[in-house]
Amino acid sequence: MCLMKSEELPVAEEFYTLQGEGYFMGQAAYFVRLAGCDVGCHWCDSKPSWHTFPFQWTSINDIIIRASQNKSKVVVVTGGEPFTYDLSIFTAELKALNIQTHVETSGTKNISGNWDWISFSPKPWNLPLPVFFDVCNELKVVIQRTEDFMWAEDCKTRVNNHCQLFLQPEWSSFNKILPEIVNYIKEHPEWRISIQAHKFMKIP
């Protein structure tokens, strides 16, 4: 269930940068990283956001004011796991300002809010809710080892026909797994590669 404290959110960080992954890679956007996640990816690069302490609950109005001051009219909500919280009010206020709403989720919590783009990155050790396969715009499967391709294919059979398909090398295994991903996509061209371009550019 979503928590009900919907007029405030626990913000781990906010920043204006370029999207580094997936379909919108290279696009300017304002990122809001929420704190709180129980998925437990051992290779997560934002582990401080797993816990709400010591982050402050922040008024959504304050977040929206900061987001609207940037030239890009795209807000990406990430985490943590964003759907730990009820995001209905937050996205309604953003949409009222004609700001596009994107979210990055593992799909383990109930959906809330009005989204222009749902980037769905399911994990086999903490299974997602089935609804995310129906509504996601982008399936982004992190590949750390050869066995992960089987999980990617299983997910591919369940997503909607309009979903964009991405395989993303896990950062610490990048040099080892990248050739496998390249070869795999050459054999399965319905997939595309997503790399964490922001890390190469050394930007947030």
Please tag this protein with its features.
single chain; 204 residues; alpha/beta; TIM Barrel; nine-stranded mixed sheet; 6 helices; 9 strands; disordered N terminus
In short:
The protein has 204 residues and is of the alpha/beta class.
Q: What do the pLDDT scores average to?
A: 94
Total count of helical runs of at least 4 residues: 6
Strand content: 15-25%
Head-to-tail CA distance between termini: 30 Å
Strand order of the largest sheet: 3-1-2-4-5-6-7-8-9
Regarding quaternary structure, what we see is single chain
Q: Uncertain segments of ≥5 residues (pLDDT<50)? A: 1-5
How many strand elements?
Answer: 9
Radius of gyration, CA atoms, in whole angstroms: 16 Å
Molecular shape? globular
